[in-house]
Give the backbone structure.
Amino acid sequence: QVRVVESGGGLVQPGGSLRLSCAASRGIFPININAMGWYRQAPGKERELVATITTGGSTSYADSVKGRFTISGDNVKNTVFLQMNSLKPEDMAVYYCKVVAGKSDYWGQGTQVTVSS
């Protein structure tokens, strides 16, 4: 079983920045990760894709965050980061990390991002 742990959420004012981190692990065993990504879910809404990155470094973004968010990763440490700049109230949500390894998806518990003045 792959363990996925997010961190870095919190309260920020509109226009501010936050950096989310996600680490995947499976004890002493290696993980054959294909891709990692960030999703978010706001109250009353469905979970939506924010950004993804493959182990080859290919990235994709939701239109709503292009130019403001940047996803990056460290293949050696099985970690992925989401740098969020120019945050808006509509970015407020629980952000989840997803790890795609082989034929399975693994999710973290989520980290809350609150954008409010």
Notes: The CA atoms of residues 15 and 87 lie 5 Å apart. The mean pLDDT is 95. The two ends are 40 Å apart (CA to CA). The longest strand covers residues 33-41.
